TrEMBL record:
Pfam families in the cross-refs: Aminotran_1_2 (PF00155)
EC number: 2.3.1.47
Organism: Nonomuraea roseoviolacea subsp. carminata
Catalyzed chemical reaction(s): 6-carboxyhexanoyl-[ACP] + L-alanine + H(+) = (8S)-8-amino-7-oxononanoate + holo-[ACP] + CO2
Family designation: Belongs to the class-II pyridoxal-phosphate-dependent aminotransferase family.
Family matches, as PANTHER family: CLASS II AMINOTRANSFERASE/8-AMINO-7-OXONONANOATE SYNTHASE, LD36009P
Keywords assigned: Membrane, Pyridoxal phosphate, Transferase, Transmembrane, Transmembrane helix
Protein name: 8-amino-7-oxononanoate synthase
InterPro entries documented for this protein: Aminotrans_II_pyridoxalP_BS (IPR001917), Aminotransferase_I/II_large (IPR004839), AON_synthase_class-II (IPR050087), PyrdxlP-dep_Trfase (IPR015424), PyrdxlP-dep_Trfase_major (IPR015421), PyrdxlP-dep_Trfase_small (IPR015422)
UniProt superkingdom: Bacteria
Signal peptide: none
Names of the cofactor(s): pyridoxal 5'-phosphate
Listed transmembrane segments: 268-291
First-tier enzyme category under EC: transferase
Amino acid sequence: MADVFAKCRLPATYQFVKDLGVYPYYRAIEERPGGAEVVIDGRVLVQAGSNDYLGLSGDERVTEAAAGATRRLGAGGGGSRLGNGSLALHEELEARLAAFLGRAAVMVTSAGYLANLALGALVGPEDTVIGDRLIHACLIDAVRLGGARLRRYRHHDMEHLERLLDAGEPGAGRLIVTEGMFSTSGSVCDLPGIARLARLHGARVVLDSAHDVGVLGAAGRGAAEHHGVEDAVDVQTLTFSKALGTVGGAVAGPEEIIAYLRHYARSMVFTAALSPGCAAAALAALGIVAAEPERRDRLRVAALRLSGDLAATGYAVVPADRPVMAVPVGDDLLCFRLWRELFDEGVFATAMVPPGVPPGQALVRVSVTAAHTEAHLDRIASAFAAAGRRLGLTREG
């Protein structure tokens, strides 16, 4: 008889990478002395892989709001939202998010992953979901949960998307799913093109705004505002763990859709409610996003400067004002070696290998935040320059 646990073996490369000292994952952060620095193994490093784009996770207004709500309401909710875990604080956050996003209704969840997983309740075996090749794993899991057919179009390729829509089953429901700003590269979806094709084919559009809410658009509402096509998006999801600096997620859309999800989305009904502290932190952060657009301006300037520095050094990076940039490496082991060289130089970035990226496309993900100073950006750029020379990755090598 086969042992069900027999498959639970890490590949041999795991121990090989560990023995080389270049294993980049599960590095424990001991302290965060500032919004752009971390302490690991007693060393202060520049944090160059964080999704805390606006530097709000350590903002005193956010942390004090979390502490106050925790003292008043406790560390946990004690149950699911459907049961006995709903708080007036949750409802206040939902109302504020709905007003901010310009949506009729919002459902707050305990995590961004759970917000996207809730979308599984919107589709069934008779439906087809067509998603960008690089959509996040939680969106793929949502389609699996709903039992729908999943078709993937090449990244940003509207012609391929149109062919898949044309080839769809007659009479089947169609749902197009995309990220607003893609988490690996910082590229922004072609939402106007998606909206045009959705209208032509009678498809619905879901926009995952995990990385673009708070960052894109004049008011920070995300990629749809950035492109001026907010009305073309039927359902929008977001997470609080990026620009809002805390934990949690939300689904925004028409009242009837949100009401349905409140009662049928398994990731909503069968999980504990968002903690009071996180709900209060998200509320405080949302107020800062609305009141301080200069944070987005500072973020764009920093991103343009660092991406330009990396490109000038010889890395295949296109200068842009997006906070996320992918430094392509290709080979997995070389990616780990680059990560370790950066770590030794005092920069804590993120190594991404399959399945996080397609095979043969390993990369180091770098992100900037509004908390990075000119000195921090200098350290990141100089670390990449030094590492590139040693590994032969740049023209200077």
